[in-house]
Structures are given as structure tokens and as C-alpha cells.
Design goal:
Elements lengths: L2 H8 L4 E7 L1 H5 L3 H11 L2 E8 L3 H7 L9 H8 L4 E8 L2 H9 L12 H5 L8 E3 L3 H11 L13 H4 L2
Antiparallel strand pairs: 1-3, 1-4, 2-3
The protein binds 2'-deoxyadenosine-5'-diphosphate and magnesium ion.
């Protein structure tokens, strides 16, 4: 990477988003397939952990849905089996990841999206993705400590960004 390319790349405003492969995605063996999609798209992995979720974390994560009838079931589901928590980085990654994930109900998610290709039920929709830049900032800091995030520059950036 020469000096010019380095400067060009650094001018791109990189975003980060929080993604989590839910218990159903893990149990169904979709971890590799899902990571592959974000990796081959050209986004950069900066945080990754396989973990059991505490009730406290699940409730904080879904706090916006606290009054919804599905809240209790949602929390029970998320804590029922391990999840893969991730942070991905890239130009426009927040909105792009939502598109790659697809609509909330997998029955109406477009084919080609993760939910559209692999799911049939709203309560088993495989993956979470932050819905806006501010939400992403909140969720990244809720799930990851600063020292758990890896700031790095992949070798292929000059082939991904003009
Ligand atoms: P998304 O995950 O697409 O951002 P959301 O934030 O509206 O969707 O809801 C969070 C999760 O709650 C969603 O992934 C699945 C569950 N959920 C949403 N609406 C539901 C419903 N009507 N019945 C059961 N579960 C629901
Ligand atoms: Mg949401």
C-alpha cells in the first residue's frame, strides 16, 4: 500500500455496527455461513466473541422493547443458548448489514438476505443487527469493552475502496 492509497483510505468515514448470531443461528450451524457473507462483502471484523448472555445484558439490549408482549419470550430465547457477538466495520456498514439481514419476519424477508434464506419464524430470525448509527454505538459499548475491539487495516482495502 503506497502513501497515496493510505491517505485515500483514511478519508473514508468508517462506521461500526453490532451483529449477534442468535441461539437458533448457532444451533443450526449457520455461524460460518453468516460470517462468510459479511467477510466476502468487504466488511472488516473488529470484535468477535462466543458467549452465553446474562439476563441483565439481554434485557438491556432489548430495553426499547420492554413494554412489548414478546419481550419476556425474546429475553428467554436470547439467554437460552450461546450467541456469537460481533462488531463489523466499513463504509455504510450499519444500513448495509440491515439489508443483508433482511426484514424482521423471515417469511417476508427477501430471498438473498440471511433471514430470507434461512428462516421461517419471527421469533427465530437468526441474527440481530443494529438499526441506526446511534443504536450501533450504544450496542457496541454494551456488548464489548474497548480492549476487546481490534483496530486493524486489512491488506485488501485499496481493492475494496476507490
Ligand atoms: P429487528 O431484529 O429486525 O431489528 P425489532 O427490533 O423490531 O426487529 O425486534 C427485535 C426482535 O424481537 C426481533 O428480531 C424478533 C423479536 N420480535 C419482534 N417483533 C416480534 C413479534 N411481533 N413477535 C415475536 N417476536 C418479535
Ligand atoms: Mg431491532
Amino acid at each position: 500500500m503506497n502513501e497515496d492509497n493510505l491517505i485515500e483510505f483514511e478519508e473514508i468515514a468508517l462506521e461500526r455496527t453490532f451483529l449477534a448470531i442468535k441461539p437458533d443461528g448457532v444451533q443450526r450451524g449457520l455461524v460460518g455461513e453468516i460470517i462468510r457473507r459479511f467477510e466476502t462483502k468487504g466488511f472488516t471484523l473488529v470484535g468477535l466473541k462466543f458467549m452465553n448472555v446474562t439476563r441483565e445484558l439481554a434485557e438491556a439490549h432489548y430495553d426499547v422493547h420492554r413494554e412489548r408482549p414478546f419481550f419476556t419470550g425474546l429475553v428467554e430465547f436470547i439467554i437460552s443458548s450461546p450467541v456469537v457477538a460481533m462488531v463489523w466495520e466499513g463504509d455504510g456498514v450499519v444500513a448495509a448489514a440491515r439489508k443483508m439481514i433482511g426484514a424482521t419476519n423471515p417469511l417476508t424477508s427477501e430471498p438473498g438476505t440471511i433471514r430470507g434464506d434461512f428462516g421461517v419464524s419471527i421469533g427465530r430470525n437468526i441474527i440481530h443487527g443494529s438499526d441506526a448509527i446511534e443504536t450501533a454505538q450504544r450496542e457496541v459499548s454494551l456488548w464489548f469493552k474497548d480492549e476487546e475491539l481490534v483496530t486493524w487495516k486489512p491488506q485488501n482495502t485499496t481493492w475494496l475502496y476507490e
